[in-house]
Amino acid sequence: NLSDRLERSFKILKGEGKITEINVAETLKDVRRALLDADVNYKTAKEFTESVRQKALGQDVLTAVKPHQLMVKIVHDELALLMGETAIDINIKGSPAIILMSGLQGSGKTTFSGKLASLLKSKRGKNPLLVAGDVYRPAAIQQLKILGEQIGVPVYSEEENKNPVKIAQNAVQYAKQHGKDLVIIDTAGRLAIDEAMMTEITAIKNAVNPQEILFVVDAMTGQDAVNTAKEFNDRLDFNGVVLTKLDGDTRGGAALSIRSVVNKPIKFVGTGEKLDAIDVFHPERMADRILGMGDIVSLVEKAQEQYDEEEARRLQKKIAKNQFDFNDFIAQIQQIKKMGNLKDLASMIPGVGKQIKDLDIDDDAFKNIEAIIRSMTPQERTNPEILNGSRRARIAKGSGTNVQEVNNLIKQFDQTRKMMRAMTSGGGKAMMRNMRR
Ligand code: GDP
Ligand code: MG
User: With respect to CATH, is domain 321-436 assigned 1.10.260.30?
Assistant: First the structure.
């Protein structure tokens, strides 16, 4: 599913010290693919990844946040944005306000009609009337009546009348005469390709002029949900979407797709069969759900272990070839910072161990070191030999430190390198292996 796919794509960013053009591009390629697979249309997916890219690259991840965490947050916020910035309220003004349900058979229209009536009655002080507009199944009227009884809301029905347009009109008249300020019209399930049925619901719409037409869709139907939403919207130009059966582990990728394809707000979600299992749709919360935040953390941790092993192997190779540079140096610092207690862990930097052990290390010391290295150009990081006086002065200025500190760091780095080279020749290799344990 979408969540798993996104989680996997974030792995690319694991351990990276910085969000760069390259690692963002790689991650977003996966994010885009995941979105496309989840039925988000091409244009939306492209726009989505582009705005994530711009936001990611503008971010400074020098301090506490790890790049993948930052990416998760950026993607999360963009997802929320894609589903609508805020919750959009249902329009219940009017005397009476008229709400018309639409959707496939079994999508949850009747259940939701009951839930909505109950919610608006208890939380918004409405005096609702439920209308049995499904005249095709004998059990349908009975089902609505039972729901109405449970929530204490009257149900308008005409057992002998088989014309739902007339029933709807009569119900509105009835509501006006009986002081009902809210009419919720349940309808039969229909397919968008069923011309006669679509003509029928259009006729109901034209006859009673509802201010809210809600499209009710089963969140578990995935790709189909999106197609159906589009077809219904083309015919009915509905006002909002209700996503039902969003309980259990349905993650709601459909929410994303529907929103992006029909560009109508999702207004409610149904989260169970009980009549109080209804929630106003909150884009933020849905983004949480789609991303499955909790899962990401553990996955990221697993990926971390794998990364560490690969990194150690890579580093060993570089040291053997005397190619250990400032990029590696800062990567090591990043690794250490991730692990927590600096004093205990500092000695684990390959080759640095002994020298640093006796030093007074605190977070600020690392901050300066990082700042200095980040102020170096890529060329300077890979070829520290070229760091002459004027370069050092520039780096000091850029990092907000002084030349003395820059000199110290470079000296320390040189010593580390020398020691590493000494170790990798002869008995050093065994020592390195021991250090990593
Ligand atoms: P309709 O044909 O569109 O009117 O659909 P119904 O309201 O009759 O619902 C069809 C089935 O889905 C029923 O068994 C409902 O109990 C169930 N249902 C409806 N909404 C939800 C929901 O949010 N969660 C779960 N788990 N089941 C639901
Ligand atoms: Mg029904």
Answer: yes
